Each structure stands twice: as C-alpha cells, then as structure tokens.
Amino acid sequence: MAQRYVRVKTQQGQTYYGVLHLNRSVEILDAPPWKGGQSSDLTVEPDSYELLAPCAPSKIVAVGKNYRNHAAEMGTEVPAEPLLFLKPPTTIIANGQSIYYPKQSQRVDYEGELALVIGDRTKDCTSEQAASKIWGYTIANDVTARDLQKKDGQWTRAKGFDSFCPLGPWIVRELSSGAQLQTFLNDEIEPQQSASISDMVFSPEFLVSYISQVMTLLPGDVILTGTPAGIGPMKVGDRIRIEIEDIGCLENFVAAK
Prior knowledge:
By secondary structure, this protein is mainly beta.
C-alpha cells in the first residue's frame, strides 16, 4: 500500500503532519511533507489523535465542468478553457465531520472530485513542469447549494458555506491515470457517480499550468479538478461516500445547521 500522509491533532491539542501506518499509529514528521518534513522521534498511537483534513491550504482553486458528461447534465457545452472559481479555506472539513445544510438553500448537492495538492511555489509553469509541482492526491466533495448557484449567477455563495469542502482522508503520492472515482449515497450499492479520472477534459497537469498563469500557487494549496455526471441532492441525515481508486474513501454526514 502507498504511504498515506495525514494531518492530526493530538489529545494535547498539537497539530502535526505524519505518515499513517497500517495499525493506525502515526509517525510524526517535523514539517509538512511537501516542505521536506522528516520523521521525528514521535509516534502517536491509535485512538490518541483526531484525523484532520490532510492539508491547510492558502486557497482552494476549483474547476467547473471538467467532465463532458457533467457539462451535458448541466445543459451546457464544455468550456473552451478551464472554468475557475475559488472556495474559501473555511469550507474544509475532515473525513467523518458533518456537512451543514444552510438555511438559505433548498437544494444542496454532492460533487465527488479528485483533489491535487501543490508541493512547490508555482507561477507561470508549463504543463511539462506542472507534473513535478503536484505533490500528491486526495479526495474532495465540492458541496454546492445548487439553487443559490442558479439564483446568484456566480458561484461564491453557493460553493462557499462553511463545511462545503470535505477533504481527505489522507494524501497519496501516486495515482493511476485511469483511477475510478465513485460517489455513493447512504447504503445504496450502485454509485451515483462513476467515472475514470482519465475522462477529464483538461488534465491535472494542464490545470496546474493554466492556474499558475493566473495566480501563484503555494505549497499545500488544493486544486479541485471537477466532478463527473451524477450529481444530486443531499438531505439532512444522508451519508455521502466518495471513493477514488489508489486513494481510499471520504465519508461525511449531512447535518442541520
């Protein structure tokens, strides 16, 4: 199994980056791994820490309509260039934490996505250079208040509520080019979303290059690469599980705010 890089909070309230072992103990690093963090003498045992979102980015850059089938289900064409928007870092929650259903919305949707974690300061890079700027991969849920998205005409409010970016549970360094992404609702056996990440219109490397020519990406920043067809509404009490081959599973419940 590939190494799983995590971020944890100990019972003493200290936050660390580390490597998760099969027995669920965490080998603590002396710095974030993308900043060259090395193993320290500290290990925290299972049940003695809280698993946090695996990074704390300065920004989350998201990409809309990056799967043709999702653009089609939204009744639009695939954009000629990546369609970018931002989610504030305060949207981030960890695996197992609650997505809060805002009172302002009558429809809140799940959107399972592959997330990229940037490992180096990145500005004006080419697609070829971008491959070395992607430090690792994790799973995200780009939660969206769909009715507010349509009402506002721009996406900041619809995408920006606290808890609207579940992220995790950990980061891996390697990912198969054809890894499967699937989203499951509650106990249903059949996925609501199912696609290969190779179905993206714009590849991860192209996205990093394109975004870096707009804004400087910093170590630990996150890029959400878009969602495939099959988005749908969630209600209070629902459990949403997103799986990506080679990474694992991100699961969150929906709660009333």
